[in-house]
């Protein structure tokens, strides 16, 4: 699985500054936008928030996966943020979230990208992978957590 | 016990697959056989065959949307949960499925 195709080193943030859900969504979207992956930042944000309203993507186990499939996205891409202290993301299990994957998918997207996303989603269900992500300090360690 | 499942969520790019992984892991930890079909943005994957459906004692629907081809499961014992519940507490759902599968 080619995770580096979807998650570039420039979109990994090891020390998130945010302290609540809305802030962290903004912080991650800024990273994505600065990297040139969005056609319309505001529209993408609206889509992400609409998805959160439907069902919180704070899925517990310290993970949040805000995401939207929308025409405001130029290219399928991931942004990873890590917070050692944890952020209240209104998780299903009430725990703080430490690992944040912001997922952006264009309205029309190819199956290769969706395959990678489903692969990552499945991987995140394993404690060992989550522990490795949390303790990673380099981009290479992040990739290795998924590829080993 | 032979179990089958169907996972689906509105966007179909993340929750569906997390629920699949969570259910598979929990079922196997309890010594069950399980196959989980996903209905996501890539369409139907890991599709359940008529034979697999017939052999299963119980079907788990972990869904946030309608199940495609739900009529395939007519007459089966069913456990239906929100897709998020399957991610959050898969063991609980497997236990419910065990009870249903045993006709309790």
Quick overview of this protein structure:
The complex is a heterodimer of chains A (148) and B (104). With 148 residues, chain A is of the alpha/beta class.
Q: What is the oligomeric state here? A: heterodimer
Number of helices of chain A: 6
Count of discrete domains of chain A: 1
Biggest β-sheet of chain B: count, sense, barrel? 5 strands, mixed
**DSSP strand (E) fraction of chain B?**
25-35%
Mean pLDDT of chain B: 95
**Number of separate strands of chain A:** 6
Mean pLDDT of chain A: 92
CATH fold name of chain A: Mannitol-specific EII, Chain A
Give the low-pLDDT segments of chain B. Answer: none
Classify the beta-strand content of chain A into a percent band.
15-25%
Determine the N-to-C terminus distance of chain B. Answer: 14 Å
CATH class of chain A: Alpha Beta
* Shape category of chain A: globular
Low-pLDDT sequence parts of chain A:
none
Q: Report how far apart the termini of chain A are.
A: 11 Å
| CATH homologous superfamily descriptor of chain B | Response regulator
Q: By CATH's scheme, which homologous superfamily of chain A applies?
A: Mannitol-specific EII, Chain A
Domain PTS EIIA type-2 (chain A): 5-148
GO cellular component, one term (chain A): cytoplasm
Protein name (chain A): PTS system D-fructose-specific IIA component (F1P-forming), Frc family
Organism (chain A): Pelosinus propionicus DSM 13327
Describe this structure as you would to a colleague.
Chain A has helices spanning 3-6, 21-34, 41-54, 111-123, 127-135, 139-147; strands at 12-13, 58-60, 63-64, 67-70, 77-87, 97-106. In chain A, strands 1, 2, 3, 4, 5 and 6 form a six-stranded mixed sheet that branches. The longest helix of chain A has 14 residues, at 21-34. Chain A has a single domain, classed as 3-Layer(aba) Sandwich (Mannitol-specific EII, Chain A), CATH 3.40.930.10. Helix content of chain A is 43%, strand content 22%. Chain A is globular. With 148 residues, chain A is of the alpha/beta class. Chain B has 104 residues and is of the alpha/beta class. Chain B has one domain (2-101): Rossmann fold. Helices cover 38% and strands 27% of the residues of chain B. Chain B has helices at residues 15-29, 50-55, 83-88, 90-101; strands at 2-8, 33-40, 43-45, 58-63, 78-81. Chain B is globular, with a radius of gyration of 12 Å. Chain B starts with a strand and ends with a helix. The mean pLDDT of chain B is 95.
